[in-house]
Amino acid sequence: MPSRPTLIAGLLLTVGLLLVPAPTAAQNAEIKIDIDRTIGEVDSLIYGNFVEHLGRNVYGGIYDPDSPLSNEQGFREDVIQATRDLNVSLMRYPGGNFVSNYDWEDGVGEERPNRLELAWSRIESNEFGTNEFMEFAEAVDTEPYFAVNLGTGTIEEAQQWVEYTNYEGGTYYSELRKEHGHEEPYDIKYWSLGNEMDGYWQIGHLNAEDYSKKAREAAKMMTRTDPDLSLVAAGASNFRPDADPMHWNRIVLDELKDVVDYIALHIYVGDPNDNYYNFQSTPHVMEERTELVEGLIDIAMQDADREDEIKIAWDEYNVWYRARSGSDMEGETALEERYNLSDALVIAGFLNGFIRQADIVKMANLAQLVNVIGTMFTTPDDMFKQTIYYPIQLYAEHAYGTSLDVHVNSETYDTDEFFIGLGEQQTQQSDVPYLDVSATHQDDGEVIINVVNRHRDEAITTDLISQTGGFEGPFEVYEINGPDVNARNTFEEQPVQTEQLDDVQGGGESFTYTFPPHSVTMLKGRIAQ
Ligand code: AHR
User: Fold this and answer.
1) pTM of the model
2) How many domains, the chain?
3) Count of CB atoms within 10 A of residue 181's CB?
4) What residue ranges line ligand 1, CB within 6 angstroms?
5) N or C: which end of the chain has fewer CB within 10 A?
6) What is the pLDDT of residues 295-308, one digit of tens each?
7) Any idea which residues carry the catalytic annotation?
């Protein structure tokens, strides 16, 4: 019979075991890379961004003549530098909902009228317009992508804007540009035919048939002015229960199949019920919609009169759910969402999705650049980079080449709700992998492996296996992480950033790497040719 002290010790040990949570076992996973299993070329235009006249994006964001941080032209030098570092390939302008009540002529020349701006309930001073934006685009080394007003605007106004920006000379609007100090045409290539015209919230909202007719006629006038334009149709953005987004997409694709080069899709996701794992699965909504629209494109292409295919432009995507009602939706401080690490993981999930669908997704624009659901946040005399800045910056710096069809063996989870946007549509999503992976390969042997470990608590030890040719280390390692998924950056401290860690050797057929919880990791090395 055990003695009394032994009994007490045994009891204490049992209670202790019950009270102290057992350490969670790390999972294991496999990532198999085969350079012969290719998807398509990653288009650099997937690393685009967006500047809308909304809140403090333009005024108080990129342009703030009263700020001590601005240059002589009124542009914020710190924002210019951070935008250059973000490697933005393409910048959409000037909206968004704003464009559907915008007269571009208000924003050029000497006379700049104050206008009541009805999309976001503010006064638009028009101090910043086409030429100021082009100056900014040049300063940050990005390609401009303009949207024309097909809400209150006419097809003639759309044509005149192209004439102003792209026509060499000898006509009213091209000479006006010269009078405004811009002798050479800008040759702006990318133009979108309106914004979210399927949305009941859009000024001048149309049905699919009326939109297609107006867009086709605008396109006719615009391309007769400049035949080198690349045009983008407004695809469906209204996914509320009473809408029929695929009807819109089908009609628009059928009607505009010989006219446009892209169909634009928009998506905003959020975590309104504080359900981290549901939220992490939301980039897969985007991938599902890509597949649906790709099917419609295939159907439309059956009898289209063109060589190439229409491509998909996710020309607005982001996390947006906090600043989405009441006064957060209007005026000078509209849409000032503050991001955390969880949001940055979702943005990396979007980027992985775009790369996995690189054969059809050929453009994407994070919405938006500064303050307004932005990658940066400013006051007149300070600026910090939000968490979502970092995945975009990292991918846009490195992730190019041919997208690979990666095989991933990772444990999965089921979501009980699959929220998108405002959480109005929910379904269940099963088999969401904890490891979300994409990879790219270059002709010179470079391979980039992008891994989001969505697990909130567990590291995942993973065998990386090369199916064709051996890995050649060393691998550079970049990691975006923070103390926990709610970690945010502020003016005072920025716990969420990209860190370059020590290289890993990673040679031969396989190597093992442990991806820490709630992290984005990029491994950059080579595969022998
Ligand atoms: O990015 C904010 C808004 O979201 C855009 O103006 C509009 O196009 C979308 O609904």
Assistant:
1) 0.94
2) 2
3) 7
4) 52, 95-97, 195-196, 266, 316, 367-368
5) N
6) 999 999 999 999 99
7) 196, 316
